[in-house]
Design brief:
This protein is an alpha/beta fold. Helices cover about 40% and strands about 10% of the residues. The two termini are about 30 Å apart.
């Protein structure tokens, strides 16, 4: 109800009666359903609603604060591309132990790391080879990364593909298991069950994605197939066609 509250408020403002939940009950419009992901991730299916228009990922462009930008720049200049660890916009609040395991796994591999950890605090002090930030836009971080460990949210998947960075996906819920499996089938990710994650299993999965040259070539191909500005224009065109009709 909280997620759909702004829509219901807008309906009331426009003089309409309250509608069904757009999350569960009323999400397939007879006029337009936007599939905001590329065909390389999920090809059109015969049982899709007839009003589906598939375009591509929408990217939320944003900047970082001066402090975050400075700390990122200084850290990136100090050594090799790091492993980025993030749990997205919601899971980050629930899994403090995950970051401690990630630190141990990355230390096993002798790699540097950037932890986008939100309110979580790792239980051990971080070495100089690791940077912890509450938040930073992935578009600023991932182009400089060697790999990314994440929960499989669609936004993080999109940014990893745009940056051409291999993933280790640890799904927690919602669409994340499906997204992770799609990346794995593309040959650009390893997937770990969240109840089986340990420093050892995470280190092994990271080593696998870092040492698989085929995934690098696949990521290059996928990145070349993505055209965010053109795809956003196609998305807007689809909306405007509905408005004109």
């Amino acid at each position: 109800k909280r997620w759909s509250a702004p829509l219901q408020a807008f309906r009331k403002e426009m003089g309409f009666a309250p509608g069904l939940s757009p999350i569960f009950d009323d999400k397939h419009s007879p006029w337009l359903v936007l599939a905001l992901f590329p065909k390389v991730l999920a090809a059109p299916q015969q049982d899709w609603p007839t009003a589906v228009v598939q375009t591509g990922f929408p990217f939320f462009e944003q900047s970082a604060s001066e402090d975050v930008s400075r700390r990122l720049s200084e850290f990136l200049e100090q050594g090799d591309p790091p492993v980025v660890v993030t749990l997205g916009s919601s899971v980050v609040y629930f899994s403090a132990d995950f970051y401690a395991m990630a630190v141990a796994a990355i230390q096993r591999l002798g790699k540097r790391a950037i932890l986008l950890a939100g309110p979580n605090v790792t239980r051990t002090p971080l070495p100089a080879t690791m940077l912890r930030l509450d938040y930073a836009p992935l578009a600023l971080v991932l182009p400089h990364a060697a790999a990314v460990v994440h929960q499989g949210g669609i936004g993080t998947c999109a940014e990893s593909l745009r940056a051409g960075v291999p993933s280790v996906v640890v799904p927690f819920g919602f669409d994340q298991p499906d997204n992770g499996e799609r990346l794995r089938r593309l040959g650009v990710a390893e997937v770990l069950h969240r109840n089986r994650v340990s420093a050892e299993s995470l280190a092994a999965a990271l080593q696998q994605v870092l040492e698989t040259p085929e995934s690098v070539q696949r990521l290059v191909e996928i990145r070349k197939s993505m055209h965010p500005q053109r795809e956003m224009a196609e998305t807007m065109d689809a909306i405007e066609r509905v408005a004109r009709n």
